[in-house]
Amino acid sequence: MYDEYMADPINNSVRELAQRYHLSIKRVDAILRLKGMEDRWLKTGKELQTGFQAGMEKILGTKTFAESIVSDIRYDAREADSLEEEENRDAARQRYQRLYWESTPEDGREPIVPASLEHAKKLAKKITKQAERHKSDPEYMPVIHNDKLFVKTKKEVISQRDGSAPIKFLDVGGKFINVDDRIRRVAGAERKAREKERRTLEAAKSLQKENPPHAS
Q1: Which PANTHER family does the record match to this protein (predicted)?
Q2: What residues are paired with 167 via a beta bridge?
Q3: Which end of the chain is more exposed for a tag (fewer CB within 10 A), N or C?
């Protein structure tokens, strides 16, 4: 199946192969992807576990289709790949040989997926660092200063009783704070405070109307 696709990706498209071998398009797509990975391993000299494959096929009673005779003189997939790469029109083959799903543009432009993945990786790291900084924000993790009523303990305290194992208390700060939850709670508290202030002002105005000041 893989050899047929590499010999002629247009006439032996994924849909055509699925109809020919009575498989789903997704299954054919997965087979071509795995065979592309296998071909890459062969080119890099990685040893394949063919003995395990033969044993499983024997146990499961798998039938292998007879190899179709291809009259194309460029039947060797590697030679065909080299020729197609020089002609810059091997997008269909590279779909399964470059080990990612994006078809490469035929005009020589760089593919989008690798750059997008790298951008997403950097963005995730940036968001993680911002979240860690927010956990140390005094608004979400108030800093308690020493005074007469409260003396802040050390960052690490070890307590041990006679005949028992020591217990270590460690101040982890805001490590386990859910920043989003804290933001919602702070916003809710501010909203309640504003609502309380509004009701207090309305009550004061209402009381003032009921009991207007008398002129002396």
Answers
A1: 37S RIBOSOMAL PROTEIN S35, MITOCHONDRIAL, SMALL RIBOSOMAL SUBUNIT PROTEIN MS45
A2: 159
A3: C
Q: Measure the CA–CA gap between 162 and 131, rounded to whole angstroms.
A: 42
User: In this structure, which amino acid lies at residue 159?
Assistant: S
Exposed / middle / buried, residue 148 (Cβ in 10 Å: 0-12, 13-18, 19+): exposed
- Tens digit of pLDDT for each residue in 45-76? 888 877 777 777 788 777 665 544 444 443 45
pTM exceeds 0.70, yes or no: no
103-126: per-residue pLDDT in tens? 555 666 666 777 787 888 888 888
Q: Which residue has the tokens 């270590």?
A: 168
Query: Residue 109: CA atoms inside 13 Å, Cβ hemisphere, count?
Result: 9
Other Cβ atoms closer than 10 A to 214: 5
In this structure, are residues 145 and 100 in contact, taking their beta carbons and an 8 Å threshold?
no
